[in-house]
Amino acid sequence: MKNLVLLGGGYGNMRILHRLLPNNFPEDTMITLIDRTPFHSLKTEFYALAAGTSTDKEVRVTFPEHPRLDTVYGEITKIDTKEKLVYLDKDRTVQYDDLVIGLGCEDKYHDVPGAEEYTYSIQTIAKSRCTFEKLCGLPAGSTVAIVGAGLSGIELASELRESREDLKIKLFDRSHRILREFPEKLSNYVKSWFEKNNVEVIAESNITKVEPNLLFNHEDVIEVDSVVWTAGVQPVKVVRDIEDIEKDSKERPIINQYFQLINDEHVYVIGDCASSELPPSAQLAEEQAERVVKVLKARFKNEPLPEKMPEIKLKGYLGSLGKKHGFAHVMDTAVTGRLARLMKSGYLWFYKRQVES
């Protein structure tokens, strides 16, 4: 039996599974899914788990089942593309014929002293649980600093405000305005929401050091009770450590138009750990997965690959500001308020219904 191995049960590989199962792959092929947890985690909702407004169960979905789908749980320690082997903890190995790497990303600390040691994270469900325990266990009146005002930082700050009205929340933004890549209408709306809800936004910040209960911004030393880091990502270490492959300046594997490694047609890379000019998102991972499925199906049938793959065009972005307000940029149109929040809630409901079916 041939073995198609999927590394990571994130948005991209979930899309591949749902396109290939139950009968869109050859009878002589097994699919092996490897993940550290026995469920698909909804990473776009980790901010709500960390803030305490969603439960653990609400941000996970069970993996599909199939007689020729083998699920393996554990920590991936090494990917050997020469030997076609994936190494796991407890001295386990998995051999592959074709491999799809969808392991996502982890925090990038930009060499800021103390950032990795003294900040909390929402990059994994386990880290989000730890962040929840810390933030929701703080005494009344405590100060929480959130470093990074991208979508994750904004949504965490707003959800935490809804969860804990007593906390002092400081959101540090490196740019001169929130969501600088988005229309100014959205930036102004989010800024206004934070002002009304007593979230302090510190623009043009530059965090130079983190110490226990201290945050250094330029020349200012700020007393804090907890710091959450949402200021950039990088591929997970096991992907950064893959030997003898081409990587970009962000240490992401460089891929061709079929999402294969430049020098290896049997290894595909999708999601946050793949080199791309587009910003990382669940939507991008799913679109990449759709194209990988087309390539795999053609190869299953020994058909030639398309001369040119269709360009990925993202539909837009959805963000929440608590449970009642939100913002969206869809088809070059800015939407704010309750309608935008309903759009995000509706998409989440639809997604969970789709993958659970």
Automatic annotation (TrEMBL):
Enumerate the transmembrane spans: none
Q: Which domain of life is it from?
A: Bacteria
Query: What keywords tag this UniProt record?
Result: FAD, Flavoprotein, Oxidoreductase
Q: Which Pfam families match?
A: Pyr_redox_2
Task: List, in alphabetical order, the Gene Ontology terms for molecular function in this entry.
Answer: NAD(P)H dehydrogenase (quinone) activity
Q: Which residues form the FAD/NAD(P)-binding domain?
A: 3-289
Cofactor list: FAD
> A biological process (GO) annotation for this entry?
aerobic electron transport chain
**Family according to the record:** Belongs to the NADH dehydrogenase family.
Q: Which PANTHER family match?
A: 64 KDA MITOCHONDRIAL NADH DEHYDROGENASE (EUROFUNG), APOPTOSIS-INDUCING FACTOR 1
> Would you tell me the protein name for this molecule?
NADH dehydrogenase
